[in-house]
Amino acid sequence: MKSYIDLHMHSLYSDDGEYTPIQLVDMCEKAGVKIMAIADHNWVKAVAEAKQYSQEKGMICIPAIEIDCQYKGINLHVVGYGIDDKNPVFNQLGENILKQELSCSLKKLELTNQLGFELTKAQLDELSDNGVYTGEMFGEALLKDPRYRDHELLKPYREGGKRSDNPFVNFYWDYYAQGKPCYTEIKFPSLEETVRLIHDNGGVAILAHPGNNLKGKFEIFDEMVEKGIDGVECFSSYHQSEVNDYFYHKAKELGVLYTCGSDFHGKTKPAIELGGNGCYCPQEIEDNLKKYHLI
Q1: Distance of alpha carbon 119 from alpha carbon 128, whole angstroms
Q2: Is the CATH code 3.20.20.140 the one for domain 5-85+188-291?
């Protein structure tokens, strides 16, 4: 289901993003998205450019950032909307996490090769422009390596396989996400610190794609609201319809904001389209954005 509101997408300022802010605005316009937000991982570098260009086109681009954080040992993504993107504190956060990601990248390579591969640093450097190797990059490198054309571990991600809809990011979720064989730990801020940072900069804090990060633990969201979370991305391209419904009704029950986002990245998630977030109540979302003075 396509929506004219898409509040979660990534530019090339995210390690796993592909397009420039200008390209994303043009693509949103073509897709019929009128209200958008570029929520890059721990950076706000895209915001000013996208906001100005979208205004020229008669569209709305809400300042946003997606911050990695932790709560009770669970890695989460919290999107801050309406933040003061001119405050250097946000890009300082990005610099801190970038340093950790750089130190973890070679460890990821070591762990990947322990699965039965012989990937080289040079293969990853062809895909990375800053020395950070993401799980998606490992998936891409392995799937294009002719040595592993018939490797059993990769079959689910090849055409026709059960994980082939978004093969690169699915490879990430299966092998590099928290608790998986190639996971490397990065020290992220706590949920409380993240909410405070967003609030101190005039924004609202929204839990992103909870169906992914809170699998089997949906009740934890209630606790997060008590910790200051302002709402939830109940409509996500990752969610089955019943998950969308659960968090839609939960948000209404708790009286918090609910949003929609595709989490569009480009080539790392080819099955995800701008505006493709399953939202069946875009007018309600727009009204909520106005209520919270986000548009």
Answers
A1: 14
A2: yes
CA–CA distance, 208 with 217 (Å, rounded to integer): 15
Write the pLDDT tens digit of every residue in 172-210. 999 999 999 999 999 999 999 999 999 999 999 999 999
Given a contact cutoff of 8 angstroms between Cβ atoms, the answer to whether 39 and 10 are in contact is yes
Q: How far apart are CA 115 and CA 264, in angstroms?
A: 29
Residue 88 CB: number of other CB atoms within 10 A?
A: 9
Q: Where in the chain is the domain with CATH 3.20.20.140?
A: 5-85+188-291
Q: Is 118 helix (H, G, I), strand (E, B) or coil?
A: coil
Q: Are 182 and 108 in contact (CB under 8 A)?
A: yes
Rounded Cα–Cα distance for residues 261 and 68 (Å): 17
Q: Give the type of residue at 267.
A: K
Q: Give dist(CA 203, CA 194) in Å, integer.
A: 11
DSSP single-letter state for residue 157: G
Q: Give the global pTM.
A: 0.89
